[in-house]
Predict the structure of Peptidyl-prolyl cis-trans isomerase.
Amino acid sequence: MSGTATAVITMSTGKITITLDRTDAPCTVNSFISLAEQKFYDNTECPRMTVVASLSMLQCGDPTGTQTGGPGYTFPDELSGDETYPAGTVAMANSGPNTNGSQFFLVFKDSDLQPSYTVFGKMDQAGIDVLTKIAAGGVDNRNAEGDGKPKTAAKIVSVTVG
């Protein structure tokens, strides 16, 4: 499958429109769309935000809110080795090679990461603005300085595709 699809993540703080890339990440996009259609992401909290010099992102997609939940399956990475993570990037969170599931992250400032995370979409500027507002509230630093649960509610109300 090739081409693009559009998804809208309606957050408690605003809407994030994403252009999904079926050409470079077909399995990832198909999984994301399937989970969205099953309402897997609806009414879930995004449990992690990182705001440090090298990484600015909100991590979502875990219905348990523990950063360990998922859909009950994993699938392989879709990497070229040339991945970059500028502001607007939507990529899969993982716990090592080929461990993709349902968790993803939304990058709101240019970030410096190894090309180990499958990029499957780009969000619009309005989406970046929504995340910047959430980040302005700070994080609770439970994981490390600048990394933890966002203090401003970051709840996914719904994800729609089409």
Q: What stands out?
A: The CA atoms of residues 58 and 114 lie 17 Å apart. The domain at 4-161 is CATH 2.40.100.10 (Cyclophilin). The mean pLDDT is 95.
